[in-house]
Design a protein that fits this description.
The structure is a single chain. This protein has twelve helices and twelve strands. The protein is α/β, with parallel strands linked by helices. The protein folds into two domains: 129 residues, Alpha-Beta Complex (Aspartate Aminotransferase, domain 1), CATH 3.90.1150.10; 214 residues, Aspartate Aminotransferase, domain 2, CATH 3.40.640. The protein binds pyridoxal-5'-phosphate.
Length: 351
C-alpha cells in the first residue's frame, strides 16, 4: 500500500459508468440517455456563438441560465444552483452539509454513486434497505446529516408517494436532497418542497429528459441559505460558457423536451405491456427505463445473450438485491421493437 494516497481513497472503489461503445450498430439501452434530438434552438445557438467570447472566463455564477431555471420553477435566482452535471451538485452537497463526523443516507438500492461520493469525503454511510418490493421503508429513529432521496428511484423506476416524502422531510433532522433526475417522465414531483421547507433541496439534470447528457448540466433548487453554501465551495468556473448557453435555450424550449418525453412514455407502455405478456415481472415505471425481472431465463444469461446480439442493457450483478433484474433504457420505438424481437427469440432458443 502506498503512503502517498489517502487511506480512504486507497480503500474505496471508483464509480464504473455504463459502457459507451463507439460501434454504430449497437442498440444502447444501458445509461438512460434520451434517444431523441435536443431542442433545435441548441443548434441555432451553437451556430451563432462568436468564438472570441471563448477567450474570456464564463459568468462564474451563471446568472442568465439561473434566471431561466428560476422562471421555470417560479422561484428567485438565489434559490438556484447549477453544476457540471447533477453529479457535481450531489458531490458539493456532501461537502457543504456533512461534517467529518457526520453521515450520508440513501435507500438501497438507489443511485450507486452516493456511497462512492461518501467514501471520497470519508464520511459515514447509512443506507436504508427498501422493502422486498423496493418500496418505502424507514426506521422511526433514523437520522443522518444528509439524505439522498431518489424520486423516482433508480434503478427501480418506481416513485414514492408525495405524502410519504413530505412526512419524511418534515421529521428528518438533516438536509434532504431529493434527486429528481427522472421527474419529467413522472406524473408528479416534489419541487414545491424545495421552496416550502428550508432543509430540502431538489436536484434535476439536463442529461435525461432534455437529451443533453453531453453538455454536463445539473441544477438544484432550495432555500437561499443552502444554495448560498454550495456557491461558497464550488470551483470558480464550474459550468463552462457553451454549456451555460446551450442549457439556457434548451430550458426555454419546454415544448421539445415535453414532446420527447411523451414519445418515450408511449414507447415505455408498449414495451412494458409486451414484456408482461412474456411473463416478465415489471412494476409501474415513472422514468425513461424499465426494471425487469425476466421469466424462463435468468437476468445474467439474458443480459449476455442480448449483448451478443449488439443490444446493451444494464445488469447490476454484484448485489443480492439487484442480481435478478435488468435495467432497460427506453430508446426509440424501432430500437425497442428490435429489443423485444431479440428477447423473444432468445427465450424461444432461436438466438
Ligand atoms: C443520471 C442521474 C444523475 C446524474 O445526472 P448528471 O446530470 O448526468 O450528472 C443523478 N442522479 C440520478 C438518480 C441519475 O440517474
Amino acid at each position: 500500500m502506498s503512503n502517498l494516497i489517502r487511506k480512504s481513497v486507497q480503500a474505496m472503489e471508483g464509480y464504473v459508468p455504463g459502457e459507451q461503445p463507439k460501434d454504430e450498430d449497437i442498440v444502447k439501452l444501458n445509461t438512460n440517455e434520451n434517444p431523441y434530438l435536443p431542442s433545435p434552438d441548441v443548434q441555432d445557438i451553437l451556430s451563432m456563438i462568436d468564438i472570441s467570447v471563448l477567450s474570456r472566463y464564463p459568468d462564474p455564477v451563471c446568472v442568465e441560465l439561473r434566471k431561466a431555471i428560476a422562471e421555470l420553477h417560479g422561484c428567485e435566482v438565489e434559490n438556484v444552483f447549477v453544476g457540471n452535471g447533477s453529479d457535481e451538485v450531489l458531490a458539493l452537497s456532501i461537502r457543504a452539509f456533512v461534517e467529518r463526523e457526520g453521515s450520508v443516507g440513501y435507500f438501497d438500492p438507489s443511485y450507486s454513486l452516493y456511497p462512492i461520493l461518501s467514501d471520497i469525503e470519508d464520511v459515514e454511510k447509512k443506507p436504508v434497505a427498501l422493502d422486498a418490493g423496493f418500496g418505502w421503508q424507514m426506521p422511526d429513529d433514523y437520522s443522518a446529516s444528509l439524505f439522498f432521496l431518489t424520486n423516482p428511484n433508480a434503478p427501480t423506476s418506481f416513485v414514492y408517494d408525495k405524502p410519504t416524502v413530505e412526512h419524511f422531510v418534515q421529521n428528518f433532522d438533516g438536509v434532504t436532497l431529493i434527486d429528481e433526475a427522472y421527474a419529467d417522465f413522472a406524473d408528479d414531483n416534489c419541487m414545491e418542497f424545495a421552496l416550502k421547507y428550508d432543509s430540502v433541496i431538489v436536484a434535476r439534470t439536463l442529461s435525461k429528459s432534455y437529451s443533453l447528457a453531453g453538455i454536463r448540466l445539473g441544477y438544484c433548487v432550495g432555500s437561499a441559505e443552502l444554495i448560498g453554501a454550495m456557491f461558497k465551495i464550488k470551483d470558480s468556473y464550474n459550468v463552462n460558457y457553451l454549456t451555460q448557453e446551450i442549457a439556457r435555450v434548451a430550458i426555454l424550449d419546454q415544448d421539445t423536451m415535453k414532446a420527447n418525453v411523451s414519445a418515450i412514455v408511449e414507447t415505455r407502455k408498449l414495451v412494458a405491456d409486451k414484456l408482461s405478456e412474456l411473463g416478465f415481472q415489471i412494476g409501474t415505471s415513472q422514468t425513461n427505463f424499465l426494471w425487469v425481472k425476466p421469466l424462463g431465463i435468468g437476468a445474467k444469461p439474458l443480459f449476455e445473450a442480448l449483448r451478443k446480439k449488439n443490444i446493451i442493457v444494464r445488469y447490476f450483478g454484484g448485489d443480492e438485491r439487484t442480481k435478478d433484474y435488468l435495467r432497460v433504457t427506453i430508446g426509440t420505438a424501432p430500437e425497442m421493437l428490435k429489443f423485444l424481437d431479440v428477447t423473444e427469440a432468445i427465450l424461444n432458443g432461436e438466438a
